[in-house]
Specification:
The structure is a homodimer of 394-residue chains. Chain A has 394 residues and is α/β, with parallel strands linked by helices. Chain A has helices spanning 16-22, 44-63, 72-85, 100-112, 127-134, 152-161, 184-197, 252-266, 271-283, 286-311, 337-346, 376-393, and strands spanning 30-31, 95-98, 118-123, 139-146, 149-150, 167-170, 201-204, 229-234, 246-249, 317-318, 326-330, 349-350, 352-353, 366-370. Chain A has 12 helices and 14 strands. In chain A, helix 7 links the parallel strand 6 and strand 7. Chain A is globular and about 60 Å long. Chains A, B: Its cofactor is pyridoxal 5'-phosphate.
Chain lengths: 394, 394
Amino acid sequence: MEFRLSERMNHLKASEIRELLKLTEEPDIISFAGGLPAPELFPIEEMKVISHKVLNDEGKAALQYGPTEGYTPLRKIIAEQRMKAVGVNATYENILITNGSQQGLDFTGRVFLDKDDIVICESPSYLGAINAFKAYMPKFVEIPMDDNGMIIEELEKALEKHPNAKFIYTIPDFQNPTGKTLSFERRVKMLELAEKYNIPIIEDNPYGELRFEGDMIPSIKSLDKKGLVIYLGTFSKTFCPGLRLGWICADKDILNKYIIVKQGADLQSSSISQREAAAFMQVYNLDEHINKIKEVYRRRRDLMIDMIKKEFPENIKYTYPNGGLFTWVTLPEGIDAAELLKIALRDKVAFVPGGSFFPNGGHPNHFRLNFSNMPEDKIIEGIKRLGKVLKENI
Amino acid sequence: MEFRLSERMNHLKASEIRELLKLTEEPDIISFAGGLPAPELFPIEEMKVISHKVLNDEGKAALQYGPTEGYTPLRKIIAEQRMKAVGVNATYENILITNGSQQGLDFTGRVFLDKDDIVICESPSYLGAINAFKAYMPKFVEIPMDDNGMIIEELEKALEKHPNAKFIYTIPDFQNPTGKTLSFERRVKMLELAEKYNIPIIEDNPYGELRFEGDMIPSIKSLDKKGLVIYLGTFSKTFCPGLRLGWICADKDILNKYIIVKQGADLQSSSISQREAAAFMQVYNLDEHINKIKEVYRRRRDLMIDMIKKEFPENIKYTYPNGGLFTWVTLPEGIDAAELLKIALRDKVAFVPGGSFFPNGGHPNHFRLNFSNMPEDKIIEGIKRLGKVLKENI
């Protein structure tokens, strides 16, 4: 049967890239395509202890419905530990638990966007955010970036032209897909502009705690005195994505809107996952665990960059990320990375072509490489293979 | 800061009832308000075994990202066990895993509804469905019910008047809030009408497997030869709501639309919860567990109805559900159940006033009673208290 669907479904198509990326899951392919953490670092033994403890101590509550806002002790620990780690003073009443930060992105679209509203974002930006927002049929205004992130003069011009834009979406730390970090000065200026135009900043920060070197730059939320920033956090990169736990940290008035949306969307996040995450942080030290992750990812970043230097042709540019999961590769103009992926797959190596990260299209001459998910021998072999593909086809 | 929000947020308000119901959570109140399963029946010891097994055997995959569609073995077991239990032939490719059936309701709104589109539903209908659909700003056409569910002649009139209605939403078995069941003859006729108007039926079936007596009436989906029915299932009432696991069973073409929506909404449901549910059904027998639940709920239903007979004034009507969690009480015209709740709370007993279950308002003279969540002594005492309130105020 062909039913009469909503207009938004015309904007939400299964992407060709997604179909292509299914091929990257074949076991003989070395894939730098996903955004997956390293599974060998998951705290499996600790989770055995924790899951037994939660079921033993509070089994009935862990398997029952719970409040829409989230499990209060988890909200408290997030405020006291995770938000403090990025310099933010918050209480549990500023925290709503979501199913990863992806759900925070969807809810942001729902709270703010009517059809044809303006979303301001980095160019390029996170594919999952673009797709989440597209369900609400906005228009995207892309702000160019340099090595210090979004160029503020360009943001200012965009706001002058679109003073009723609904929000600025930014991933300030080790951005997905570029690995770039927004400088402190620009954070301050972005906040000033947000205040001038009364426009919220959606600060999506999945990677901020994964800094390999240099001083932490304060989160935008930590500089926010006026409640302009809606902060999205997640345990997917610092703990385990399989639990599907993230959070929104915001002023109570606007958080209440998100809570109403959460109620209609799925009532609440998993009671048992929330209690397990809270118990983990009570019994173990998440910061120590994050240090282990950073150590491994830093080595993988170093190795990938070294290999790129050795194996890639000289006319290919790449970013040097100080943290996070990704580096961003720029090919000469006129090269289509999506076509290149088809060739690379034949040589059993994969990446994500960059075009999908630009909401308004264009820019086919980029691709994203992930360094967190592959062990060192695979990084060496994979970048060799990719270097060969590049040398032969560029 | 006051931001510029989407138009839909004007339609999504925190309900006064919800605020009132927060009071029902105080420990000295006997609450028949929630829709909660009995926590003393949760398989806690079995879940300890299962969660250890999943982490031990497949810990890395259980804590990692997984496919948007869901964990394939779980999709298979749902097709082979749960859908078969309601008479449906399906394969895993017809199943999408969601965060409870609430998420299936939200996605249904997203797939089908533009502003001012028509949703056809029972009058009254499930509050959570009404709220989920309201995020997409439709108009509701309510179809009156009698003891056999939605009155088909009224449905036919509504479809004649609104031939472009987007879907028919129904809870055919032990409906929330009325406890009523749609007769077999009406299911057949509803399908005929759906085919005539090319309109999907959203069959929401959280309670169908909780039948206390009488023969199972085939699910509408089991009678569907044309792919007209989109079936929403859940483990929240037959297993544990705290895992937040439900599913959508539909023809592949329309299910693909839901999968695209799921990708943007939260990427996937919890990897670990999905593997735990699958392992539970492999190691234990969920049907045996459901039989235990039915036995307890049947006794509670019997007791509540007996007490109502004894304690309520004679001019008060109530339904006699053959399964599920709820009975529906009708007060004389002119009585406002929301006002009555305020009095009842003083006497430490609670219910949900019926008005919120009517999407277009009105009908204040009803309330919903839950019998699954309270032990027998509390049912006796609670209905006594409620009888006193009714006698003194009606």
